[in-house]
């Protein structure tokens, strides 16, 4: 019975667009889905994807990047609309980067070499944004952090 369920999860032919838009946009990369592109559809919503975009996205997370509905099936459709494959997608949740080690990201003062209080640190944005130097305002000879 699992085989029957799997076969009926997504239709054998891609539904005709009802959006009125002559060109669909990929729900993952937001680029146009060309008429000769392999299309990806998921079982939870009606958003359209480039198949490769949906496949890559599903390796990180199995929620639609547009509406956030969780999906468990990904169908690949030919440009003519015929389903070529149907793949079961495992549950995945995108994992945020750990922020426990803020100390590693702290920038030392160029003058004294200390990390210390970031609220007293001035960051240089000179050289068209390529200078990343940091100075404590006291090390730079200032009485307080300048406004702005």
From TrEMBL:
InterPro entries: PHRF1/Atg35 (IPR047157), Znf_FYVE_PHD (IPR011011), Znf_RING (IPR001841), Znf_RING/FYVE/PHD (IPR013083)
Annotated ranges, domain RING-type: 26-68
Top-level division of the source organism's lineage: Eukaryota
PROSITE patterns the record matches: ZF_RING_2
Keywords: Metal-binding, Zinc, Zinc-finger
Single annotated GO MF: zinc ion binding
Keyword Nucleotide-binding listed: no
Keyword Zinc-finger: yes
PANTHER family per the UniProt record, alphabetical: PHD AND RING FINGER DOMAIN-CONTAINING PROTEIN 1
UniProt-recorded name of the protein: RING-type domain-containing protein
Biological source species: Alexandrium catenella (Red tide dinoflagellate)
Organism lineage: Eukaryota, Sar, Alveolata, Dinophyceae, Gonyaulacales
């Amino acid at each position: 019975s699992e085989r029957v369920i799997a076969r009926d999860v997504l239709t054998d032919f891609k539904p005709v667009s009802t959006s009125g838009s002559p060109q669909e946009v990929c729900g993952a990369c937001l680029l146009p889905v060309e008429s000769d592109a392999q299309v990806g559809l998921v079982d939870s919503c009606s958003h359209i994807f480039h198949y490769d975009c949906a496949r890559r996205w599903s390796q990180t997370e199995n929620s639609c990047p547009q509406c956030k509905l969780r999906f468990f099936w990904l169908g690949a459709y030919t440009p003519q609309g015929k389903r070529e494959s149907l793949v079961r997608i495992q549950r995945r949740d995108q994992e945020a980067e750990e922020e426990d080690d803020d100390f590693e990201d702290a920038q030392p003062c160029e003058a004294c070499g200390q990390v210390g209080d970031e609220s007293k640190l001035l960051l240089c944005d000179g050289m068209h944004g390529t200078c990343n130097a940091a100075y404590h305002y006291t090390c730079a000879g200032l009485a307080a952090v300048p406004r702005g």
